[in-house]
Amino acid sequence: MDGILTVTATEAPVRAWLADFAAAIEAADATRLAALFAPECHWRDILAFDWDLHTVSGAPAIAERLAGGLGQVAPRHFALAADRTPPRRVTRAGTEAIEAIFTFETAIGPCNGVVRLVNDDGAPRAWTLMTALDEIRGHEDPANGRRWQDVDWKRNFGGENWLDRRKKAVAYAEHDPAVLVVGAAQAGLSVAARLGMLGVDTLVVDREKRIGDSWRNRYHALTLHNETRVNHLPYMPFPKSFPVFIPKDMLANWFELYAEAMELNVWTGTSLEGGSWDDAAQCWDVTLMRADGSTRRMRPRHIVMANGVSTTPIMPDLPGLKDFKGAVRHSGGYGSGLDWAGKRALVLGTGTSGHDVAQDLAVSGVGEVTIIQRRPSLVVSLKEAQAPYALYDEEIPFEDKDLLATSFPYPVYRRSHQRMTEMNRHADRVLLDGLEKRGFRLSFGDEGSGWQFLYQNRGGGYYFDAGCSQLIIDGRVGLMQYADIERFGPDGAVMKDGSVKPADLIVLATGYEGQAAAARRLFGDAVGDRIGQVWGFDAEGELHGMWRPTGQQGMWFHAGGLAQCRIYSKVLALQIKARELGMVA
């Protein structure tokens, strides 16, 4: 009985607010709309009211944008979502609110929404609002309850069977794909799966020999640093037998299985050599190099750069490094610490890869390992690093977790991570104090916003401690500051005091080239200039050029961790499908 009363008590204000919101929308009344929002308020829209991602703050700005874009969108039928998590009281980013999932319709199709209501002078008003297009009407994802029509898959004695069709589809002998996806890891496979389910002909190319090699070929000890429970790909969750943290080779093998099961068209051993946009034909003209050295010219209407935030290794031209007589490796391909037993190693960089490599070397019998710090780094224990995924511990359906994960407008998202970072600092105090005593320079992100913001702005600059921090504290892994190095020489690092830190191996954990740079290299400066920045937050708090239109027609970018790729592959696929249907220019 108490549970029923609680649900009713939380449902009533939400139903009332939705009714008022629907009436104000129907009247296109900006004044009435503004009155429904709290003094601090934010609206994030994901394709529901515009074919882009936008975040707007402040009641007047929200009301103006809502009222001004109603004509073509025609939003209607606002209601609490049936068969989803009911309204409930929550605390998000330190603010108590009633959180509710609702549905509505537009001229394009069904949409979902999340509203959080706070008490403002006795009245429930919206603190945050998120609206998102769910599907394009008439072109629904068959995985959402409708299988392909039986006529497409009937038994055809004496004719083509399923395997024949698959071979023909992947060969592209007589036609080109509508979409060319570059990269066959989590980003490329997830968006290809979404597009395939929407009936968009898609080819994925990857320069590696096997699907998953971009993970398989990385350093020997690599294991994911976030938990399996949040990392599922679209349509196919990981088996429950998988470990909490997935090893790289296990993940790589799963990618192969996923591509086969989802019937994805993938060409491995194939590199995109370059191309140009044909404005008259409204398509790309690209050249692919196959594994056998042959080339294939294709004219896709869309290119999705899904080659990852970590694309091409950055090998900095450090003073004197060319004079070093030992081995120089990038962290991504250095191999195993067992290959360097008894040697002396310097590892440049204190992000995740640098720490992992240093730890791998130290426990593999390398004679002496020293990590070199170039700038302050954020360190958080592996346990505390899972704090941003606490939502996935809540006992609600997984699809609701994903929807709620997208529902935090940037200012609230940032505040939430600042609070998490402060809690992490307190929980990890002993670890962090030990590092500082050894001379390790700590960072907690811009204004204490934590590791997620470092990742989404820079693609790195942090470490989830899996044991290397204690090795540094205990002195098993040495610590040097790059500022104390004058240059590198034949025998190692030449210090500013004239001494030499000897080494047989230097590992450069110096990061990777971003996607925008890779696109500029492939398509030229003119295209690169039109694309602009990719990754990093814009003024509204959305990521530049990611999962959304860029300045270059037909050019898209998709990247991030597995959870991001799962969630935003749908957002990207809907935009491409809409353009294929002629709904968007």
Short description:
The chain has 585 residues and is α/β, with parallel strands linked by helices.
Write structural notes for this entry.
The protein is an alpha/beta fold. The protein is 31% helix and 24% strand. The chain has 17 helices and 25 strands. Helix 6 packs parallel to helix 17, helix 12 crosses helix 14 (468-474) and helix 15 packs antiparallel against helix 16 (525-531). Mean pLDDT is 94; it is low at 1-6.
Helices, by number, come to 17
Main beta-sheet strand count, sense and barrel state:
7 strands, mixed
By DSSP, the count of extended strands is 25
The level of helicity is 25-40%
The radius of gyration is 26 Å
Structural class assignment: alpha/beta
What proportion of the residues form beta strands (DSSP E)? 15-25%
- Cα separation of the termini: 54 Å
User: What's the overall geometry?
Assistant: globular
The overall average pLDDT, rounded, is 94
Give the low-pLDDT segments: 1-6
Keywords:
disordered N terminus, 25 strands, alpha/beta, 5-stranded parallel sheet, 17 helices, single chain, 7-stranded mixed sheet, 585 residues
How are the SSEs ordered, and which strands pair?
Elements: H1 2-27, H2 30-34, E1 37-46, E2 53-57, H3 59-68, H4 70-73, E3 76-80, E4 88-92, E5 95-105, E6 110-120, E7 123-133, H5 162-171, E8 179-182, H6 186-197, E9 202-205, H7 213-216, H8 248-261, E10 265-267, E11 271-278, E12 283-289, E13 295-298, E14 302-305, E15 327-330, E16 344-348, H9 352-363, E17 368-373, E18 378-381, H10 398-405, H11 410-427, H12 429-437, H13 451-458, E19 462-465, H14 468-474, E20 478-481, E21 485-489, E22 492-495, E23 500-502, E24 505-508, H15 515-523, H16 525-531, E25 555-557, H17 562-580
Parallel strand pairs: 1-7, 8-9, 8-14, 9-10, 14-25, 15-24, 16-17, 16-24, 17-20, 18-19
Antiparallel strand pairs: 1-2, 3-5, 4-5, 5-6, 6-7, 11-12, 12-13, 21-22, 22-23
Helix pairs in contact: 6-17, 12-14, 15-16
